[in-house]
Write a structure and sequence with these properties.
By secondary structure, the protein is an alpha+beta fold. The chain is 22% helix and 25% strand. It has three helices and eleven strands. A hairpin with a 2-residue loop joins strand 6 and strand 7. Helix 1 packs antiparallel against helix 3. The radius of gyration is 19 Å and the shape is globular. The N and C termini lie close together (11 Å). 36% of the residues are buried. Bound molecules: 2-acetamido-2-deoxy-beta-D-glucopyranose. Keywords: Signal.
């Protein structure tokens, strides 16, 4: 009986603060804000930075993107321009523990997590630019833990190159191999770099929410036990 009560009361609480363990939904494509019940984005400086392997892009030639900083559990990653909120280009074969998300009528328009396993700088995302005059930037929402997340973190601007890409660059025919090939380079340049992309303000709202949930759980256990 006590166990049943505990389950009946606790499961909905934990469920509510758990957000989306299997990835963002398409309705998050525009706002890029997870709908965790009772959790708010961090306003403290983000410990993450969004890194690219190039400052230039050439339509059809993959650019790799990594998220440097502490390991994270969830994300929503898109390429954007300042012209609209559309997700641009097409992501390639998702790295482990991630999947495509259909954004802007494009089934490969965004990447999100497929489970809450930890991801890190060795998780490399490969993006194929469209025929766009650019510049573009990569925008990401990173979920470190269920209720601790930073929204709208941006990479540098990546400008459209003119003419053919310089040097031996992976070509358009290599869809699916780009993620693996880029892993070493992307991971090496990003490790340990902290971003300063978010501005100051209300800090710790999410932690307070977690603590309230924890205290409630503890009280319930105390009462029922
Ligand atoms: C992607 O979403 C659009 C609507 O936003 C829908 O029309 C389309 O069928 C979806 N594509 C896939 C492959 O689910």
């Amino acid at each position: 009986m006590e166990l049943l009560l505990t389950v009946l009361v606790l499961v909905p609480i934990l469920w509510c603060i758990d957000g989306y363990p299997t990835g963002a939904h398409s309705d998050a494509c525009g706002p890029m804000i997870p709908r965790h019940v009772g959790a708010y984005p961090q306003h403290t400086p983000s410990p993450y930075s969004v890194l690219t392997n190039s400052k230039m892009f050439y339509p059809g030639y993959p650019v790799t993107v990594t998220i440097a900083g502490p390991q994270y559990r969830g994300l929503l990653l898109q390429a954007r321009s300042h012209e609209s909120n559309d997700a641009l280009g097409s992501w390639q074969l998702p790295p482990p523990d991630t999947k495509f998300l259909n954004c802007s009528n494009n089934p490969h328009g965004a990447m999100t997590h497929s489970n809450p396993n930890l991801k890190g700088v060795t998780t490399v995302y490969s993006w194929v630019p469209p025929d766009f005059h650019g510049p573009i930037y990569f925008m990401v929402t990173v979920v470190q833990e269920r209720t601790v997340f930073w929204v709208h973190l941006s990479s540098i601007h990546v400008f459209r190159g003119s003419g053919p890409p310089p040097g031996p660059v992976a070509g358009p025919g290599r869809a699916g191999t780009g993620a693996g090939a880029g892993a070493g380079a992307g991971a090496g340049t990003g490790a340990g770099r902290a971003g300063a992309l978010a501005t100051g303000g209300q800090s710790g709202l999410a932690e307070q929410t977690s603590i309230v949930a924890l205290v409630m759980s503890f009280l319930l256990f105390a009462i029922l036990g």
